[in-house]
């Protein structure tokens, strides 16, 4: 299993229980690149107490690795830059970088963000959706389903902190439906792993002081996942 994380915390915040329940899952953080020492320090990093953008990313990599070690996950980092460092990528460029990762090829299940809010989340979702369409086609009996190759399963998680904002989940479900995709909730028996997840969340010492009480509370609520299928596919 591979979980795609836009930033160096999203996978644990959104999927920490599932990571703890899995067998050495991979967590591939898309926007984990190290900024140049000359990049201007953004306000978020400054508020977290860092003196440079590079220091901030190095520290967050350490925090993420520590959290994942507690949950049994394996961290992997792409070198794409967080949008706060004023770098922009196309959907195609992000999709290609994700596609090139060997762990993706080896994983039978890939779990990506719904992309409810924040440009990096939205971009990771869009890239993931472009990558998963062949698997959806195979599973749904569309072009290419006679290859004899088991299609990779793609699931999408509700982005913690953002899923609590009014209407965002419903809007994404409607967007999928408009694109010809039907979303079905997927349930995992991961509730017993919540204490372990919340202990791992404490590793993000530079991030947590910047979150509100309601945002932190959302991290501790049940994780939610969705599968997609082309509209018209038989559900029997």
Please indicate the percent range of residues in DSSP E strands (runs of 2 or more): 5-15%
Q: Using the coordinates shown, work out and report the CATH topology.
A: Rossmann fold
Major pleated sheet: 7 strands, mixed
So, CATH architecture?
3-Layer(aba) Sandwich
**Number of helical elements:** 9
**Element pattern in H and E:** EHEHHEHHEHEHEHHE
| CATH secondary-structure class | Alpha Beta
Alpha carbon gyration radius: 18 Å
Structural class estimated from helices and strands: alpha/beta
The side-by-side strand order for the widest beta sheet comes to: 3-2-1-4-5-7-6
What does this structure look like?
This is PIG-L family deacetylase. It comes from Cupriavidus numazuensis. InterPro entries: GlcNAc_PI_deacetylase-related, LmbE-like_dom_sf. Strands 3-2-1-4-5-7-6 form a 7-stranded mixed sheet, with helices on both faces. The chain has one domain (2-230): LmbE-like (Rossmann fold, 3-Layer(aba) Sandwich). The radius of gyration is 18 Å and the shape is globular. The chain has 236 residues and is α/β, with parallel strands linked by helices. The model is unreliable at 143-149 (pLDDT under 50). The chain is built from 9 helices and 7 strands.
């Amino acid at each position: 299993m591979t979980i795609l994380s836009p930033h160096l915390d999203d996978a644990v915040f959104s999927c920490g229980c599932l990571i703890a329940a899995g067998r050495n899952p991979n967590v591939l953080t898309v926007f984990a690149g190290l900024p140049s020492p000359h990049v201007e320090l953004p306000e978020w990093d400054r508020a977290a107490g860092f003196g440079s953008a590079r220091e901030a990313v190095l520290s967050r990599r350490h925090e993420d690795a520590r959290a994942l070690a507690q949950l049994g996950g394996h961290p992997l980092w792409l070198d794409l830059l967080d949008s706060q460092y004023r770098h922009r990528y196309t959907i195609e460029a992000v999709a290609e970088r994700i596609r090139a990762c060997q762990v993706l090829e080896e994983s039978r299940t890939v779990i990506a963000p719904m992309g409810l809010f924040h440009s990096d989340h939205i971009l990771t979702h869009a890239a993931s959706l472009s990558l998963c369409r062949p698997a959806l086609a195979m599973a749904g009996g569309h072009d290419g389903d006679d290859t004899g190759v088991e299609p990779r399963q793609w699931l999408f998680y509700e982005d913690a902190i953002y899923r609590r904002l009014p209407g965002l989940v419903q809007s994404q479900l409607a967007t999928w439906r408009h694109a010809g995709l039907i979303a079905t909730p997927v349930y995992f028996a991961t509730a017993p792993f919540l204490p372990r997840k919340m202990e791992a969340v404490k590793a993000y010492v530079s991030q947590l002081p910047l979150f509100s009480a309601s945002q932190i509370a959302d991290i501790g609520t049940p994780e939610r996942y969705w599968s997609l299928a082309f509209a018209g596919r038989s559900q029997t």
